[in-house]
Write a structure and sequence with these properties.
By secondary structure, this protein is an alpha+beta fold. It has 6 helices and 14 strands. Helix 1 (about 15-30) packs antiparallel against helix 2 and helix 1 (about 15-30) packs parallel to helix 3 (about 50-60).
Length: about 270
């Protein structure tokens, strides 16, 4: 069972919880605890998770440590103005928005350059040509670039989208090795589901942001990097997560044009 790593003080935003969960899943895959298919399915589920408990359920059967925040216990608090009335409340996590003033295009290799799995260079689908292919595949195979969310790794992409002609259902499709396949069972989708048009992404800039993630996030090196495109409620955004085997990790967010909106770099002081 995964045990919490040493915790740090301060609020943690939902993207950071997702980053910690995916980093834990990445390590489990690298250690052989998860197959590639199991890893892909859990990442897709993590993207749609709505509570911290949902994320913990995805990693609770895995061995080792995790940086995912622990679930805060219920506590009794007095509601002002209502003497003697007490309510059980969960700790509210307030998103921390970091500011960044420059866009760094440092080139960092995030995979072995001669790895035959990567069709488009060291970063695979995260290179510009790879991202262009990811978008074109959505048009060709799904008939739309409007998705619930998109996750892109160097060697595969996961599309969460409404089932064609059945908008009240969603499913996940994975593209890798030149083919797209559905996995999982279609599930209920509400009419109010937020969507994002990946056809509106400024791909050259997004590719540059991803390539420079190691520099932007203060990482010694980058062993794992991926991006998520989703609307968390404040408008469509791109989240780039990067980590390495030294335990360093961080994430940044941009709008669809690649303008930074937040950054959480690795802090060696912890």
């Amino acid at each position: 069972m995964r045990t919490p790593a040493s915790t740090t003080s301060g609020p943690r935003s939902r993207p950071e919880k997702l980053c910690s969960t995916c980093a834990t899943l990445d390590r489990a895959r690298d250690e052989g605890q998860l197959t590639d298919a199991e890893h892909s399915a859990r990442v897709a589920t993590a993207v749609r998770a709505t509570t911290l408990g949902d994320l913990h359920r995805l990693i609770e059967d895995l061995q080792g440590e995790t940086d995912l925040a622990e679930i805060a216990p219920w506590k009794s608090v007095t509601v002002p103005g209502r003497r003697g009335r007490r309510l059980g409340l969960l700790t509210v996590v307030v998103p921390l928005i970091g500011a960044i003033v420059a866009l760094t295009f440092g080139i960092r290799s995030c995979a072995v350059a001669d790895d035959p799995r990567h069709q488009f260079g060291p970063a695979g689908f995260l290179e510009l040509e790879g991202l262009e292919r990811v978008v074109s595949v959505a048009r060709e195979e799904l008939g739309t670039t409007v998705l619930d969310d998109l996750s892109v790794y160097p060697d595969y992409a996961i599309y969460t989208h409404a089932v064609r002609d059945r908008p009240l259902l969603y499913t996940d499709s994975i593209y890798r090795d030149g083919a797209m396949d559905d996995f999982g069972t279609p599930s209920t989708r509400t009419p109010s589901t937020l969507t994002v048009d990946i056809g509106s992404l400024n791909l050259p800039v997004i590719a540059g942001v991803t390539a420079g993630a190691g520099v932007s996030l203060n990482l010694t090196r980058v062993d794992t990097v991926y991006l998520l495109v989703r609307d968390f409620g404040g408008g469509p955004q791109v989240s780039v997560y990067a980590s390495n085997e030294l335990g360093e990790n961080g994430y940044l967010t941009t709008d669809l044009d690649g303008h930074f909106t937040s950054v959480r770099p690795f802090d060696p002081e912890g």
